[in-house]
Amino acid sequence: MSILRVRNWLDPVLRKKGEPVDNIDENLARLVEDMYETMLQARGAGLAANQIGEAKSLFVVDIGIETGKRDLVTVINPVITAREDEEIAEEGCLSIPEIFAEVRRARRVELKGVDLKGNDVRYEAEGFLARAFQHEMEHLAGTLFWDNLSSVKRNILKRKFKKLQKEADE
Ligand code: NI
Fold first, then answer.
1. How far apart, in whole angstroms, are the C-alpha atoms of residue 132 and residue 129?
2. 19, 90, 108, 116: least surrounded by Cβ within 10 Å?
3. Which residues face 59 on adjacent strands?
4. pLDDT tens across 77-120, in order?
5. How many angstroms does the Cα of residue 120 sit away from the middle of ligand 1?
6. Distance 98 CA to ligand 1 centre (A)
7. CA dist., res. 48 & res. 75, Å (int)
8. Residue numbers annotated as active site
9. Is pLDDT of 141 > 90?
10. CB count, 10 Å around CB of 131?
11. Coil, helix or strand for 103?
12. CB 35: neighbour CB atoms within 10 A?
């Protein structure tokens, strides 16, 4: 297993849509193992394939993160099939490190997809996990959480990001 480089929002791969996966093979299983390791090392709750440079329709999420019991799952070719209610909560992204903002999301979602064995999976999620699913789905559509905000707010966050990067480089 190896730690992959998490791309930041300046990398054009973050704007690519995830290509549907039609072949679940050893290479994909290896990629997923690396994504798990990368996500855990970065202390993330989820990671979409384009964040590590692969524009494929899949993401990994720790569905146990709220309980403290690690439970890593992979969802391939995911689709949100139902959304219910809304709530606003703070959110961050491994591709926009150190930047957090409040985002309005559905409170409950149903997500369908396929697991690494090729079996159909279905999750009913609410709260934090529902938010994580919606966040990862946006990655697979080539968008980022701050695209939900006004351009004024987004530009403030972009300036903050660049300032933090500059400080880190000094
Ligand atoms: Ni993200």
1. 5
2. 90
3. 48, 75
4. 999 999 999 999 999 999 999 999 999 999 999 999 999 999 99
5. 24
6. 12
7. 10
8. 136
9. yes
10. 23
11. strand
12. 27
* Structure token digits, residue 92: 């961050």
Structure tokens, 109? 């979602």
Query: What is the 135 CA–ligand 1 centroid distance (Å)?
Result: 6
pTM: 0.96
Q: Where are the domains of the chain?
A: 12-169
Give the pLDDT confidence of 26-81 residue by residue, as tens digits: 999 999 999 999 999 999 999 999 999 999 999 999 999 888 899 999 999 999 99
Residue 83: helix, strand or coil by DSSP? strand
* Radius of gyration of the chain from its Cα atoms, rounded to whole angstroms: 16
Question: What's residue 24's pLDDT?
Answer: 96
Q: Exposed/middle/buried for 92, CB within 10 Å: 0-12, 13-18, 19+?
A: middle
